[in-house]
Amino acid sequence: MNPLTVRPRRLRQSAAVRRLMAETRLDPAQLVLPMFVKEGIDEPRPIASMPGVGHHSLDSLRAAAVEAAEAGLGGLMLFGIPRERDAVGSGATDPDGILNVATRVVAAEVGDALVVQTDLCLDEFTDHGHCGVLADDGSVDNDATLERYSDMALAQAEAGSALLGLSGMMDGQVAAVREALDAAGRSDVLLLGYAAKYASSFFGPFREAVESALEGDRRTYQLDPANRREGRREAVLDIEQGADVVMVKPAMSYLDVLADVAATSPVPVWAYQVSGEYAMVEAAAANGWIDRERTVLETITGIRRAGADAVLTYWAVEVAGWLRAR
Ligand code: PBG
Predict the structure, then answer these.
(1) What percent of the chain shows pLDDT beyond 90?
(2) Helices 275-286 and 292-305, interaxial angle, to 10°?
(3) Is-catalytic flag, 38?
(4) Which CATH number goes with the domain that contains 292?
(5) N or C: which end of the chain has fewer CB within 10 A?
(6) Cβ–ligand 1 contact at 123 (below 6 Å)
(7) Per-residue model confidence (pLDDT) at position 123
(8) With 0-12 CB in 10 A as exposed, 13-18 as middle and 19+ as buried, what is 287?
């Protein structure tokens, strides 16, 4: 065969042909915007390490949620920054805690237009900054933490969250929370298992964003970045426990794990493009070293191509705007 009868470049010859042949597309409905709401502020405040992202007041959160709904996003993921913290993270289960208050506000405003979601983890609410409660020896007590998560789940469901993001990486957290919700008659609430969440340095800017009190690290509960097989195993366990959706996080350095999970998961698979991924692109773009819009779209397309059904990204609203303008 004359090799020149085979010309793959035919498929790339014009914008119109490329558009028709694209294997992966982005749609605002597949994007979820993470948002931070801070207790006791009246005006939104910038987060230095995440240019373009800020702490919301309740009012600015409401307005931004409406903007996200109008942009056609699939959902919002809410994180709260309380004024006070304690050893057990009391603010997480208090109906008047900032995250629960914010959830009520946002659910009432846009709960029919998109999926209002909440982070279910104690790290923003504990004075030691860990994702769970501590045992006497200072280690994170898995089983005692599950009781706190169950109570937190009920508080979040009560506040109007439609999907709980279980990001704490405790063993058995999906089963424990599912059982608590079902026993309370809330079998309608969706559970997202952050199945394969790695102990990543890419969470750095987020820790600033939530004013994390953490000293040390999360390596006794989050996954070792060296491990691919273990990421698959965690996803399988979350699915067995009843997760409605599973997640791989961070995204860009874990696309192999994402592809593995996506290849076999019977439930939707999401990826979280985390704060450090955002900050890196913003910093390089601010220096003029990369084309910002093209880079952002390439990163999210790559995450979708690797198998993510939906992507959590701080660029969600802006990307939706670009997609509309095309
Ligand atoms: C834990 C949580 C973290 C992120 C989302 N949920 C931080 C952590 O595990 O230290 C990170 C998100 C990001 O970096 O954008 N509640």
Answers:
(1) 96
(2) 150
(3) no
(4) 3.20.20.70
(5) N
(6) yes
(7) 96
(8) exposed
Task: Give the residue numbers spanning the domain of 36.
Answer: 26-325
| Catalytic choice (55, 85, 249, 304) | 249
Pairing verdict, β 269-272 and 115-120: unpaired
How many structural domains is the chain composed of? 1
pTM higher than the cut 0.85? yes
Q: What residues pair up with 34 in beta bridges, in sequence order?
A: 77
Q: How many CB atoms lie within 10 A of CB 315?
A: 24
Residue 9 lies in a domain: no
Please state, in angstroms and rounded to a whole number, the distance separating the CA atoms of residues 32 and 75: 5
DSSP state of 39: T
Measured from the CB, is residue 200 less than 6 Å from ligand 1? no
Nearest CA to ligand 1 atom 8: 203
Q: State both tokens at 309.
A: 């059904």
Cα 197 to Cα 13, 247, 251, 254: the distances in Å are 40, 8, 10, 10
**Residue 109 resides in a domain:** yes
3-state secondary structure of 250: coil
Per the prediction, the chain carries an average pLDDT of: 97
Q: Label residues 69-82 b or e (16+ Cβ within 10 Å = b).
A: bebbbbbbbbbbbb
Helix axes 58-70, 316-325, angle to 10 degrees: 30
- d(Cα 227, Cα 235) in Å, to the nearest integer? 13
Compute, in angstroms, the gap from residue 181 CA to the centroid of ligand 1.
Answer: 24
User: 6 lies in a domain?
Assistant: no
* Domain presence at residue 7: no
Half-sphere exposure of 285 (CA within 13 A, CB side): 15
Predicted confidence band at 3 (pLDDT cuts at 50, 70, 90)? Answer: confident
Pair of tokens at residue 138: 């200072």
